[in-house]
């Protein structure tokens, strides 16, 4: 993608310009004449092959049922014609019992995928015409312009996607009743033109008439086979719990383990059928996407297709970022109150580098493999641009202007999503999007001062040790000498803290694998290879070693920075010096307690990993997990009690501050695993407190350096 297309990086404004009621994007869309979107010529051969593949796909479940019937018939003929008869003895008894048991078990577990309940996704929120008449009218106008019947129902979702499908049940397929589902994050981050283009694409699928019904049959079969083949159901989960529960006894556990093995065989069969059906249909699915893209280009113009493709990728990533932060803040008992608006707000915060990375991903998507369900984005962009369509709707106002009360809909969808996940929430624990996106970040003004003072040379971990400033060789440097030394080290420090953070994360993963090896647990590495114990121990030791070049450089930078802070504190007046020394004292306490806290929480993470992924293993492993959980609780409670003796500047103790970040602490009860989960915010809270105190002290030092004429690290302003 050329640089010019990066103009999409400018965030969509959320303010609707003042205008007459009949000059909204919705009313502009309603003025499209019915049937104004020309349809492409029909392709009889394509339609024939589509229905042929639909027929073959429908044969996959019939083949599966045929195998069940065949097994039942084999069992019947065995007992009717082939089973031994005559004098009763042990061999005759086994000949009658074993085949019947084996066939019965196989039939039972082949029938299970037909009846076992599946985990359900939270439903979308219905939007009745009375809730938003102007948007409903706009959707109906777009449908009629394309030449299809309007959707029977409109639903709103929290996802960054939109789709149209036949309404559930046979009536939806036969009568052509359609349900339009719109992800409100798309509305929050798109222009009206882009959103209408996405809707035109989805309606374009249904303009394919009978072909769409064939595609629905194909995708329905594929979804059913895929869900049965790859996703555990409620019966699987129940059996795993029974197999892991020692109170059930050895025979029950053995029976459950055998049953799980039978289920695995059943899933292997389902996977084979799914692969056959899936591979037959994907080439035709690609053609359907090209056809639907044509409608999008005609409605909103070929020149906007690439921008919409880029925006869709960006919104998906923005939703993922917001979701990760929301999961993180939920550990503190909080949730964001408006999920779609927060996604749009996060997108507005993106830097040029963020947009450039997404654009590079879009540019790289230039190869369509035969088995892909969708063509490569670059092929779709080229196909749309080749049409050179001017577009009938080119309104660049925010997509939210299509709705009468978009914020109310966002809140309703967000709360509906949380209720579907069975999360407890209320006005007191719902936070706004700005607060969520500010999680773990310094306030904007303080962040600018921090960046100017440090020039990006100080990260979060390892922590600065104020006492290092009083030791050689750092103690030999004068004030300007400290700054000059940091400027000299600057080029070598590029990417240093990112590398250290990746090494810290890798050390946590390696500690899990080393623990499994110590416990003699059989497992495979992520690449399906057997673990090399000696290599893993060597890698773990390298990750935690203090004598690596990066750790030595970080230690040098932190020691010089500590000395630099000492010079600044010494130059302050008495009242400001007292406050700065108190901050240095807090930083010293945080540095000293960090290794202890890190060791405790590393053990807690290992315990959660073992509990979550290995609960069906031998009793000795479960006992080890139990001991780890008990030890984690004891050590964490003792740590918090010890931190109650460290007073912060604003009054509460360090221990009280950290407890306050665990909003669900009281829900743990006596469950040690639950206790680990609800205290997981402690590490982030600890590091955020460290960063805030250090940044505030750096702001004081920065002002002192300006007053005393100390030349900063960055002598020339960097250009972008």
Structure description:
The protein has 720 residues and is mainly alpha-helical. The protein folds into 2 domains: 332 residues, no CATH class; 257 residues, no CATH class. It has 26 helices and 6 strands. The strands form 2 sheets. Strands 1-2-4-3 form a 4-stranded mixed beta sheet. A two-stranded parallel ribbon has the order 5-6. Helix 4 packs across helix 7, helix 8 runs antiparallel to helix 10 and helix 21 crosses helix 26. The chain is globular and about 95 Å long. It starts with 24 loop residues before the first helix and ends in a 13-residue tail after the last helix. The N terminus and C terminus are likely disordered.
Show the helix and strand layout.
Elements: H1 25-30, H2 44-82, H3 90-115, E1 125-127, H4 133-146, E2 153-157, E3 162-166, H5 170-175, E4 178-183, H6 184-189, H7 192-206, H8 210-230, H9 234-244, H10 250-300, H11 305-330, E5 335-336, H12 339-348, H13 352-364, H14 377-387, H15 406-420, E6 430-431, H16 433-437, H17 444-454, H18 479-489, H19 496-518, H20 533-544, H21 549-570, H22 574-613, H23 619-643, H24 654-660, H25 672-678, H26 681-707
Parallel strand pairs: 2-4, 5-6
Antiparallel strand pairs: 1-2, 3-4
Helix pairs in contact: 2-3, 2-8, 2-10, 3-10, 4-7, 7-10, 8-10, 9-10, 10-14, 11-12, 11-13, 17-26, 18-21, 19-20, 19-21, 19-22, 21-26, 22-23, 22-26, 23-24, 23-25
